[in-house]
Structures are given as C-alpha cells and as structure tokens.
C-alpha cells in the first residue's frame, strides 16, 4: 500500500458515463480530478448492442450540445445506423410504425405530439431524443475526459474512506489518496454511498427482469414486440433478443445462476408457449427496486447517478438522470472549490436534483403498476392506451419521457426561470448552445441596454456578456444563463436591474 503525495480537488469513484461526464465538467472549470475505476477493462456485453442501447433525452442532448459533444455522438450513431447494427437489435424497430417513446410499453408517436405547447422551445440541433450505444458514449466521454487532463486509474476500486470536515482520505487496494471532495459515481450498489453512511430509501422490487440473447429452435412461437400475458410480459426481436419480467418479488435476481434451463422455463411460463432455447448466448437480470439517497451530500462526500438513485430500466431514464446530475453538480462544485460560490450553492445540487429523481422513481413505479399480470391491470392498461393515443396524451407522455417538462424551482415566477434556455439563434448564425461551451455563465442582452452591460462588469471573470440580435427573442429583453444552461433570470422589461443583480449574487457569488 502506498500513500500518494498529491492531493486532488476532487476524486470521483466510478468511470461510468456519469463519473466521466462529471470529470469533463470539473476539468472544464480547471479543478484537479482523479477518477478511480474498479474494473480493469471498461468493456462489457451490457454496453454493446443489443443490451447497450440507451435512449438519450432532451436535457442530455442539450447538455452535449452545450459542451460541443453532440456532433461526435450523433456521427457515431449514424455510422452504426449505416452499418445496420442499430436496427438489427431493437424490437421496436422491427415494427411497422416507429415509436418516439413509451409508457409501460404503450407507445406514443412523434406525429401525435403537439410541440407548439412548448412555447419556450426553439428549434435546435439537440432535438428531442436519440438512441446510442453505451460503449460509444463512454468512449467519447473517456476521450474527452483524458484530453482535458483527467487522470483515470482503472482496476483501482475504492475500498475504504475516511471523511473529515476538510477532506477525505480514499483507499483503494493498492494506494491511499487525499482529496478535498469525493463524489460517488460508482453505480447502484455504490460502495461510497455505504461507506459514507448515506440513507437509501425507497421500495423493494416486485419482479426480476431478464435481458437475454439466445438461439431459438422455434422463434415463430413468440410475437415480435411487447406482449403482455396472464403471467408477465416479454419483448422479442428476431433472431433471438428477449427481455421479460417475472413478478417473483425480485427473488431470483443475483441469488441464482442464470442457466439456459431456467431462462427457458421462465420464458415458457410467461409466453404461454413451449418455445425451446437451443443456446443461451448471454443473460443478465435486473429488478424494479426504486431507491434514492435521502441526501446527496454528507460533508465532503457527494453522490451522483445510479449511486444516488436506482429504479427499473423501464422507460430508460437512469442514464439521463445521472448525466443531468453531473451537469448540475460540476460547475457548482468547481465554484465552491475556487472559493467564488456563495455559501449554500453546493447544497442547491441536492435541492434541484433530488426532486427530479424522485419524480422519475415514481414514473417507473407507475409503469410497474401497469405491467402487473392481473385482469384489473390489463383493464387499466387499455384505458391508458386510449389516453396515450390522443394528442393531449401523446404530448403529456412525450413531455415527461423526453424530459421537456424539466424545471427547477428557483423561486422566481417568470415562466423561463429554472428551465433550460431556448437555443436562440443569433443573426450571424451562432446558437446559444455553442456560446456555453466554456462552461461560464452568460448574460444575453437583446436590447443593448447599458444597465445590463454594466451590471455584469464585476462578474466578468465568471460571466460572459453578449449583446446580440437573435432571430426570435420570444419577447424577452435580457436573460441570465447559468453554466449548465438553465435560466437564472429573465425579463420582458427594458431594464430589470434589481432582479438580475440578485440572481448574479445568488448563482455567481460575491464580488469585491
Ligand atoms: C438493460 C438496461 C437498459 C437501460 N436503458 C436506459 C436508457 O435507455 N436510458 C437511460 O437513461 N438509462 C438506461 N439504463 C440505466 C443506465 O444504464 C444507468 O442509469 C447508467 O449506466 C448509470 O450510470 P452511472 O455512471 O451512474 O453508473 P454505472 O454505469 O453503473 O457506472 C458505475 C461505475 O462505477 C464502477 N465502480 C463500482 N464500484 C466501484 C468502486 N468501489 N470504486 C470505483 N469504481 C467503482 C463500476 O465498475 C462502473 O464502471 C438502462 C439500464 C439497463 C440495465
């Protein structure tokens, strides 16, 4: 065991997508980061297609747009689409009409969604959603983190920590490190969460879920797509990709080896067929356990991503939640380390992100409730199906599933405050997303008003000021944007100095 002499501003446990993105955000703000990852090899069958497919929602795509990562990620997926690897594996791509999302397997379609009801959304390259594979996503984030100077040590899992008021001592199998802040991004079974004594409250599972790749003797006995049966639910994509849920109270998960015989017997019971698995190529299990840390911070230890909240993968929101945690936490933690943050800024991370995860946990619980294999649930499902098929219904479900409804309660009743900033297009062609690449605050002045310009002067080391003509300013005179792209203050009046001043103190700290 060796004690490392260097001290880091931040140690992140876990080089999953959330730990990697957080490292990028912290390096963007110039703080030193050590990323400790338990696994020696980042590759896993769960990160490649078909099981590695992940749906990115609007806030994630906007975050990537704001950091200059979007083009690269879109290009990677286009290359996969052209190579034919994406369509081959997804059951919803083997159906006639391609859904834009679903609720408990009930699809909604983009053409039914009325996006005119989102008056503060302007057309943007970010779009609303995108399917990616986890390996490519992690690859892009790793390359960016390293290029920006993050030290990543693989095969070095955190095994012990000692947290004091002025920092944390972090122990791996071989080394001891010292840091001012430790962030646990080490997944749903987070060691950091347990070692630091966080409460993890929530509900126990109702089912064991299975992700299976198999060779089938008689695949025609299964229906392509999602099928509810009196004993559970399965989805099937040719030639042999199966997902299914077995309402066993979650008892099978992690308790028994997943054999071909077991998977075949569960599949036969759920599908009500005598389908035969000739070869089990891959199988993983999961549950609908839904838990959340009651606090995201204990002294110098913070949690983000699955370490802070777990729920079933139904509806695919866990990754998006975690990446939004990283975008929210990065600039606040960096400002706290630099000493420019007002007292309490770091705790707004919990204040803003905890309710969002709580909402997603409930969203996933509601889907579980709609999947139970009972006659009354099927009756309820048929009513929800009718509602989803209406324009109001499709718009509501898209709003929730795509993350368009995300709004932080920042205590200001202007309808834009706390929301993601619209992607205003400047007359010269640049977009707001591109102006946020440096991770700094931004005052956007549409009226060239002298008061707004002089207001920002004392904060110029933290906030950019741009007086710009935009194609559509949505009736606003000025807008103050946080480094994560969320609106801190907005006004329709020619000058609204007091409100802007207050917001600048609140989000960008005191100035001499
Ligand atoms: C089948 C399936 C489909 C899904 N589909 C979607 C989807 O479409 N959209 C979506 O948003 N989400 C989806 N999710 C959820 C999403 O994959 C997770 O929420 C996301 O991976 C969480 O990222 P993370 O970085 O927080 O944790 P992880 O990805 O779990 O990464 C944690 C990392 O920490 C490392 N680690 C563990 N212990 C230690 C330790 N002691 N020290 C150091 N490192 C450690 C691990 O090796 C790992 O690399 C899906 C999940 C599953 C299972």
TrEMBL record:
Its cofactor is: FAD
* Protein name, per record: FAD-dependent monooxygenase
List the source organism: Sphingomonas agrestis
Q: Does the keyword Cell division apply?
A: no
Instruction: Specify whether Flavoprotein is a keyword of the entry.
Output: yes
**What is a GO molecular function of this protein?**
monooxygenase activity
**FAD-binding domain location, by residue?**
8-364
Task: Name the InterPro entries for this protein.
Answer: FAD-bd, FAD/NAD-bd_sf, RIFMO-like
- What are the UniProt keywords, alphabetically? FAD, Flavoprotein, Monooxygenase, Oxidoreductase
């Amino acid at each position: 065991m060796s004690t490392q002499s260097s001290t880091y501003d931040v140690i992140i446990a876990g080089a999953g997508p959330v730990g990697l993105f957080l490292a990028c955000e912290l390096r963007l703000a110039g703080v030193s980061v050590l990323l400790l990852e338990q696994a020696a090899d980042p590759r896993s069958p769960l990160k490649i297609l078909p099981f590695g497919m992940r749906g990115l929602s609007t806030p994630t795509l906007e975050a990537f747009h704001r950091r200059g990562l979007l083009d690269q990620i879109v290009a990677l997926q286009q290359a996969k689409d052209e190579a034919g690897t994406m369509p081959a594996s997804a059951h919803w791509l083997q159906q006639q009409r391609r859904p834009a999302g679903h609720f408990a397997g009930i699809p909604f379609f983009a053409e039914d969604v009325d996006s005119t009801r989102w008056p503060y959304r302007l057309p943007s390259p970010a779009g609303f959603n995108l399917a990616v594979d986890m390996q490519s996503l992690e690859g892009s984030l790793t390359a960016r983190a390293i290029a920006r100077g993050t030290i990543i040590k693989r095969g070095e899992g955190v095994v012990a920590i000692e947290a004091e008021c002025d920092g944390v001592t972090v122990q791996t199998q071989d080394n001891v490190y010292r840091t001012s802040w430790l962030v646990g991004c080490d997944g749903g079974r987070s060691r950091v969460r347990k070692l630091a004594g966080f409460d993890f409250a929530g509900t126990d599972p109702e089912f064991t879920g299975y992700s299976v790749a198999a060779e089938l003797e008689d695949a025609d006995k299964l229906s392509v797509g999602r099928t509810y049966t009196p004993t559970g639910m399965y989805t099937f994509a040719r030639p042999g990709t199966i997902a299914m849920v077995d309402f066993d109270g979650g008892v099978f998960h992690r308790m028994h080896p997943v054999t071909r015989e077991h998977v075949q017997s569960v599949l036969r019971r759920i599908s009500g067929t005598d389908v035969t698995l000739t070869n089990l190529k891959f199988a993983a299990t999961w549950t609908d356990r839904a838990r959340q840390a009651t606090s995201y911070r204990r002294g110098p230890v913070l949690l983000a991503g699955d370490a802070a909240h777990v729920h079933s993968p139904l509806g695919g929101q866990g990754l998006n939640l975690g990446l939004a945690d990283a975008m929210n936490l990065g600039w606040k933690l960096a400002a706290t380390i630099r000493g420019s943050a007002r007292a309490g800024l770091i705790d707004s991370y919990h204040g803003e992100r905890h309710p969002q995860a709580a909402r997603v946990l409930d969203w996933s619980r509601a889907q579980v409730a709609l999947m139970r294999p009972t006659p009354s649930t099927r009756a309820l499902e048929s009513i929800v199906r009718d509602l989803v098929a209406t324009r109001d219904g499709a718009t509501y479900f898209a709003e929730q599933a795509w993350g368009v409804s995300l709004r932080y309660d920042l205590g200001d009743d202007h309808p834009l405050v706390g929301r993601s900033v619209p992607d205003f297009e400047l007359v010269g062609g640049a977009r707001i997303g591109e102006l946020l690449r440096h991770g700094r605050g931004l005052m956007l002045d549409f009226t060239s008003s002298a008061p707004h310009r002089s207001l920002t002067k004392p904060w110029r080391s933290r906030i950019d000021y741009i007086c710009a003509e935009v194609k559509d300013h949505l009736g606003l005179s000025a807008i103050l944007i946080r480094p994560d792209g969320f609106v801190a203050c907005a006004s329709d009046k020619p000058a609204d100095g007091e409100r802007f001043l207050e917001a600048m103190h609140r989000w960008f700290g005191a100035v001499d």
